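Table 4 source record.
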Amino acid sequence: MAKIEVIMPQLGESLTEGTIVKWYKKVGDPIKKDETLLEISTDKVDSEIPSPATGIVTKILFNEQDTVPIKTVIAEIETEGEAKIEPELPSPELEKKVEPTSQITKIDKVEKPQTARFYSPLVLNIARQEGISMEELEKIPGTGIGGRVSKKDIQNYLRNRQTKTITTEEAKPTISKIETTMKVVDTGDLAAKYPPPKYEILQMSNILQKMAEHMVKSVAVSPHVQAISDCDMTSIVNYREKFAEEFERNEGFKLTYTPFIAHAIVKALKEFPLVNSSIEGDKIIVKKFINLGMAVASDQGLIVPVIKNADEKNFIGLARAINDLAVRTRNRRLNPADIEGATFTFTNYGVFGNIIGIPIINQPNVAILGIGAIKKQPVVLNDAIAIRSISYLTLSFDHRIIDGALGGMFLERVVKYLEEFKEFE
């Protein structure tokens, strides 16, 4: 038997510690390689950490809710073999995928894929046995660390492949589901003030606490001003209805309205670079790149993963990035790098049926765009009444550098690109 030490991983360059939220195994339990061993929370994101090997958990050195420095041994696993292994974590380079050039065709062995995306031998074996090519494998959304495809992912894909029912549309987490992620606590004086059973006191999760601090800071720092425009989304609605099946057949996930919105925002930001900036003291930092923050509702609360270099992606590239981030957000598979560096943010509260919202700026951005539900309405078109699919867009902006004229022009430019949509280049 060999002893393998499990190390507290560094989930981001700026992070020096992590909090153990939950152990999924106890001492004496068997565990398989890549099976979830524990969940770690940082001030950036929560992550499930897989076991580095198959064996028996022999030591757990820290309790749940303990905060532990990185590179500290937190558990030990006994297994056959000699290697000392740390939990594998994705490197930033894995975010940059290259075109797959090989195909899994041999029956007696698994060929090494020529791709920057990591696949475990188990996943490659299943792909080989089921005749899944590397090109097809690349399109399967992964819920593992760094977006890796797990055994469960590929099995779900196989179950749904014939009917093409893989779904990545925005989920609608309920309040009750969010509540289940928080613990009931007894806080002494507070419990006396709010006694059960009439009251229940919940401990905010790490992520909810950080989000609350972030929002309070934003309101205190930025003088918020809002502008609202209606937007005729009929052309996009018709396009989506016409090509939804073809898109899902080609890409393996559903076509939502989100990539259309992201595409229009990117085009508008290129014309109004001041909206894609930040403020430090009395200096304005204009960004020459666009990292698009995308607010996603999850059972942990609101999280804003970032589409890096969105200005370098075409429509399909944006759709793939949005799908990947949405899936990994809801499956707690984001890395700290995934939620850092946004230069502009949008939030689609329309998925909940809301028609108008007043979003808070995501610091250090200077503006955020909110998108309401698309609903059919009677409108005046060419002096006649017509039924059109209308959405209301709200731009909240920092009045320190964006005045009403600039904010209004930018918002109307986004509306223009959405309303005049014909087909993507």
